[in-house]
Amino acid sequence: MDKANGLLILAMTLFTIGLTGVIIRKNMLIILMSAELMLNGVNLSLVIFAQMQEVVAGAVLVFMAFVVAAAEIAVAIPIVLLLFQKKNSLDINEYSDLKG
Amino acid sequence: MQFLENLLNNLDNFLIVVFAIGALMGGIMMLILRDPMDVAISLVSAMMFLAGIYGLIEVHFIAAFQVLIYVGAVMVFMIFIIMLLSNCDKSMMNKYSPMLPYTLTISMMFFICFFILFTKIDITHINRLTSFSVSDFSKVFMREYWFQFILVAVLLLESVVATITILKPQFPNILDNLDTAEVKNG
Fold first, then answer.
1. How far is A45 from chain B (nearest CA, A)?
2. Sign of the C-alpha dihedral, residues B16, B45, A22, B77?
3. CA B46 – CA B182 distance, rounded (Å)
4. Is the pLDDT at A81 greater than 80, yes or no?
5. Smallest CA–CA separation between B22 and chain A, in Å?
6. What phi and psi values does residue B124 have, to the nearest 5 degrees?
7. For residue B158, which of A72, A23, A94 has the smallest C-alpha distance?
8. pTM of the entire structure?
9. What is the ipTM of this complex?
10. What is the mean pLDDT of residues A14-36?
């Protein structure tokens, strides 16, 4: 197995672990962190594909994904804080009444 | 002696394997550990190992961004919030949802599909992964993608404004309290 294949499999594994975390964990903060792990896996695969194709645009896209991840966290954390203020809990099952 | 020579000749490949195992262990620990602070530390370690991998495959600027933006900004913010809330919430210690068996099944299928796909990618025509220098990145970034970067920067600014807009009605004196704290500390 080549280095690129190995790194792509690592990226895919990190994405799968993050996806599993998003679905099975119940704490909102841990779900957010699992989503970050998924994003890390995608970033790694983007870098590998960019290097394989010799296109710098992939690296630029990764840089923009970093900025978007920072923006996502900046918005998500206040929402988590406000939800916590409402029900004093971060358990997502407590918020099942939000489903329309 | 021969082993040491081989190891030194292939030191970068050896380190990539070590860092990949470290990143995987960090991810798996995120699923296993219960305390959010432990989970955050696992994620930080996984991100640091990934930064090491970026460095070894010669995309040094991505490694620097990974450490500066993810570990230095995003995760420090996350750890700060965990420290703020961890003593108040007993549900922090809840572990898994009842969907665990279904999720594991779906994740395994997902994993197997992508494993087959990625191992079948034909890379025989590629001699090695191309390294990108900071100057390559900067040239492309400033000539072709400056407008997209400005759009993303505006998005980041909007998120900061949104944060203040979300928090201000709930904590109307939040900025005043910060000023008062500064005066007291000063």
1. 11
2. negative
3. 36
4. yes
5. 11
6. -65, -25
7. A72
8. 0.82
9. 0.92
10. 90
Q: Which of B12, B25, B31 to mutate to test the interface with A (most CBs of A within 10 A)?
A: B31
Helix and strand totals (H; E) in chain B: 9, 0
- Three-state secondary structure of B115-158: HHHHHCCCCCCCCCCCCCCHHHHHHHHHHHCHHHHHHHHHHHHH
Among A83, A25, A88, A91, residue whose Cα is nearest residue B88: A88
- pLDDT, tens digit (0-9, with 9 covering 90-100), for B88-140: 666 666 667 667 777 778 778 877 877 777 677 666 555 566 777 778 788 88
Q: Enumerate residues 6+ apart whose C-beta is below 8 A from B77.
A: A73, A74, A77
Q: List Cβ neighbours of B45 (8 Å cut-off, separation of 6 or more).
A: B22, B26
Q: Which residues are CB-neighbours of B86 under 8 A, at least 6 positions away?
A: B35, B36, B37, B92
* Rounded CA separation A48/A4 (Å): 7
A28 vs A90: CA distance, rounded Å: 6
Structure tokens given for A83: 């939800």
Residue A95 has pLDDT above 90, yes or no: no
**Token reading at A9:** 């499999």
User: Of chain B residues 71-110, which have a CB less than 8 A from chain A?
Assistant: 73-74, 77-78, 81-82, 85, 88-92, 94-97, 99-100, 103-104, 107, 110
CB-CB neighbours of B38 under 10 Å: 14
Distance CA A78, CA B1 (A): 57
Q: How many CB atoms are located within 10 Å of the residue A50 CB?
A: 22
